[in-house]
Description:
By secondary structure, the chain is an alpha/beta fold. Strand 1 (8-12), helix 1 and strand 2 form a beta-alpha-beta unit. The relative contact order is 0.08.
Amino acid sequence: MSGDGGRTLAQIGVDVPRELIAAAGFTPYRLAADRAGAPAEAFEGQPPRSRSLLVQMLGRDPAFAGAAIAHDRVEDVQLFSVLRELSRTGRGGGLSTAHVDVLTGVDESIRRYNRARLAGFKAWLEGLAGRPITPADLAEEVAKANARRRRLKQVLNLRAAPTPLMSGVQALDLIRAVGQVSATESGGLILAAQASAGPRTGRRVLVTGAPHETSVIYAMIEAAGCVIVGEDHDWGDPWADMMLDESLDPFEALLRRWETPLPGAVGGSSVARAQALTARAKAMDVEAVVHVRLPGDESSPWDVARTREALAAVEKPLLCLKLDLEPDPVRLAEALDAFFADPFAPRQAPPARSRPEAKAPEKSARPASADGAGRRSRKALVSTADFGVWQRDWFADVRRRAAEGPFAVVNADAPQEILRAMDIPYVVNQWWASIVAAKQRGGDYAALLKGADYPADVESYSAQGLAAALDAHLDDAPWGGLPKPDILALTKGSDAGAKLFEAWAHETGAELFVYERSVDSRWDLPVAWWSDLPERWDETLEAERLDLLTAQLEASIPRLEAVTGRKFDPARFVEVMTLVNEQEDYYRRARDLIAATRPAPAGIVDTMPATMVPQWHRGTIWGRDAAKRLYEEIAARAEAGEGACPDERVRLMWVGRGLWSDMGFYQRWEDSHGAVFVWSMYLGLAADGYIRAFEGDRDSLRALAARFVTMGDELRMPTWAGAWHVKEAQLHGVHGAVAIDDADPFVLEALERAGVPVLRLPMSNMSADGDTLEAAVTAFIEGPVAARVR
């Protein structure tokens, strides 16, 4: 480790501008997650990589001067919010931390956003250093960094020679070491590596897939008879190509870097990565490309299909390995030997899916209802009884209109109100996934994904629409099947999302709309956002984030007009936005009644579908009136003293996505324990997360941006999510919370700090493990919850 700790600044993410850090007088030190992670008890609930980075940042002696975290991957974004929450709760060790939320692209709105974020990072560094960063300082460091990259590139080229003169292990270790010292000190490391150059023998391979922060797996691959002559992830030789244009103003040169992402960027294009990788594989004359998937990697599995296609065109084979951070070297060697014995052997596709009538019933299967769903729930409300029928009629009409075109599928976190105003029929991807889950077709759809070389275990809930596009058996598809979309839209809220939708567009020919996911980079957040956002969103949210999404929404309108031939009417859009606010206000009133009334007039068995079905129709008169009917019936039941569980003794909250395939699970303890689930995120978020006041068409698009720029923060961003869940728990007077594996650990920790017992269930909302976990819930109710009730 180089230098005095007080002058060394931790860097996480390749997009952190090291030149700016050096110009402030600090040595940037790019942290690499130790392959062993960190002790399980350290920062419980965080991924192993994040735990390792947190231990290094907060436990270093001498301490880092600060830390800078980029937006390279969603885990890093979350890591910044974790550090912010640790600091807020007195556990952060005083480490000054900045989030460098720069995005990639040539769009002018992205350039403006990056300029503002880079200026903010520069001001943070100047405050930390106690002096200004001059253009001359920055220009000097840009020149030094370019010189270092040129020298590094010359040495790295040794392993790409016809006879490699450097191993992959040496190269990766050198790149990591150079990233942890000053530009001056790096010269000695590069010279030493050059002096140790010598011939290497083995099968020439190129590595792709997950980023490798250590050389452990490289060493195993090379010990098995290979030589890694290059890679395309950002811990490898692409880092040496990140040159800056010294003829430009140095600040402008930094901005230009982010116009084009590295080919192997975690959130980049699978097609672009495959094309760049294939060109290198051909130019370097490798015997094979090795795709390595590591734990926590949800992005690169979506690259496999396009990579295999591109490599096949130049007759280069692809080996896909799914490995632990410390795999068995013997088994890894056996896998490599088996592959090279016949590298062009046809990939074994999974067996074709069975049609439902061909399935033999399993002895242990839960009794199914007539329509194939899981165990039935008992509904207390009658006003929503026709929602299901209405939804079927609506979807039949959507299918009819989709046949005529146009038709869109959008992610739940992508703006939909513009489509509504333009009368473009659409389906929300997560609604379709809930239908697939309710019909218990996830296994069939997983086989379809695997057969097309797509992962079935990454973003599986969101991938059901892509699977539907691969389904040739429409006669037995849920609800007749999902029509082929003409338009696909999402916000880049996960590492895998954009690649999943890119694959979907590839399979269907749909026009793809991708909205950037910006991040709140403030260290001090407005915790009580539920009070601030409805009326004061323009004061509460960062202007840079609102400017960016508003610009992207404005840019999407002419594209939609060109694709559909329809015109956007601002007056109609105002009508849609007004209906949305009215609908969400009814949800807010319904939520408040349930929270205040004993016994609760409705439980989540009723409120989940009663919220979500109309939510897919936000901006319609039917959606507004459906929310009104829900509120009015809840109000009537509250006045009459009617409860979802008349003998209510225990109130529970459900944290995480809903068990749509097994709604009866939530009522398992009503008769035996008087325990009713009164809260889920669905009605809670509808009540607090959507209302945005606006004044006609003057700021209606900006109000829409304010609605979606925070989408997801309320549920999973530490501080925001934890404070909100605690507020909702206290408002509803719950005695305990039951959470599944997608619940944010800081939310659960915040609930426990507030005195709410939490049961963590090791299951996802797509699992069929409800029966096996019922005993755990029973013990929870009879133990910690009973103690709180008393």
